[in-house]
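Dear support,

Our group has been running a series of protein-ligand predictions, and this particular one with magnesium ion is the one our PI (initials K.S.) wants archived with full inputs and outputs. We had some confusion internally about which version of the output was final, so please treat the block below as the authoritative record. The input we submitted was:
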Amino acid sequence: MSKFGVIVTGPAGAGKTTFCTALIQHLRTVRRSCYYVNLDPAADDFAYEPDIDIKDLISLEDVMEELSLGPNGGLIYCFEHLLENMDFLTDPLDPVTDEYLIIFDMPGQIELYTHVPILPALVKQLMHGSLNIRMCATYLLEATFVVDRPKFFAGTLSAMSAMMMLEMPHLNILTKMDLIKGKVPRRELKRFLDPDVGLLDDDPDRALPEEAKAAGLDPTETTNVMSGASYHKLNKAVGRLIDDFSMVSFLQLDAQDEESVGAVLSYIDESIQYHEAQEPKEPVEEPLDDMEGY
Ligand SMILES: Nc1nc2c(ncn2[C@@H]2O[C@H](COP(=O)(O)OP(=O)(O)OP(=O)(O)O)[C@@H](O)[C@H]2O)c(=O)[nH]1
Ligand SMILES: [Mg+2]
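Confirmed final output from the archive:
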C-alpha cells in the first residue's frame, strides 16, 4: 500500500498555511480524506487543528529561550531534533491509508531548503524510509512579486534552488492571484507563468538610459554601478539562466476560489499518481477509529 503526500514550502508569508486550509476544505467538499501535519514550530493559529503538530515535540519559543538561539538557529535546532526523533512522525503516519492526502505545512525560512540540507534529509526519510510516501513539493511565491520584475526573478531563482535541493516532483505556485487581478494584463501574466527573460528588458520601471546601453554596460564601471546598470546586467544574467533551463513555470492560485484550489490539486494528484492507486470504493464517511484526519 502506498501513502500520498504533498509538502507545502515557500518564503515567509507566501500563503502556505492558507493554501493548506483551502486544500483541506476542498478535499472535504469532494469527500476525500486528508491528514494535516504542521511542521512549523512557531505556528499556532490553525483553521483546522493539525493531526500532527511539531510543537508537541518541540517548540521554537522554548528552544530560543532555553538555548539562547535566534529564530533561524532555533528553527534549525528544531528540525535537527525532529530528524533524531523521526518516530514522532512515523508512528502516527504508519496507519494512514492510501486514500489520504498527507499535507505537510512548512515554516517560511527558506534556509531550510536552500542551503542547509535539513529538509532534503527529512523528505528522503519520508519518501524512502519505512513510510514510503509518494510525495510532491509545492513552492509558493506571492503573485505581487510580478510588480517588481527583478524581485520576481530572485523569487524564481529561490524556487529553482528548492527544486534542485529537494529532488522530487515539484510544482511552483503563484499565490494571492486575487491581489493582482485586473492589475496585470493577461498576456503579460502569461510571460510570468513561464518566466521569460525579455520581461527584464521591457521593464518600464527600470528602463536603462540610452547612453548606458550604448556604452556596452561594463559592470565594473562606477557610473554603471551608480546608475543601477550593473544590477540590470546581473539580473539579466540570472534571468537568462532561468530561461535557458526552462525549469521553472508557475501555476496560479487564489485560495478563496474553490475552482482554483481544485485545479492545483489536480496537478498534485497527477504528479504523485494518486488516482492510479485508488481502487473503486465507497466514499469515506467517518475518519478511521485509530487515527485522526479530516
Ligand atoms: N489576498 C490574499 N491574501 C492571502 C492569500 N493567501 C494568504 N493570504 C494572506 O497572506 C498572509 C500570510 O498567509 P499565511 O497562509 O499565514 O502564509 P504562510 O506562508 O503560511 O506564512 P508563514 O508560515 O509565516 O511563513 C495572511 O495574512 C493571509 O491572510 C490569498 O490567496 N489572497
Ligand atoms: Mg504558515
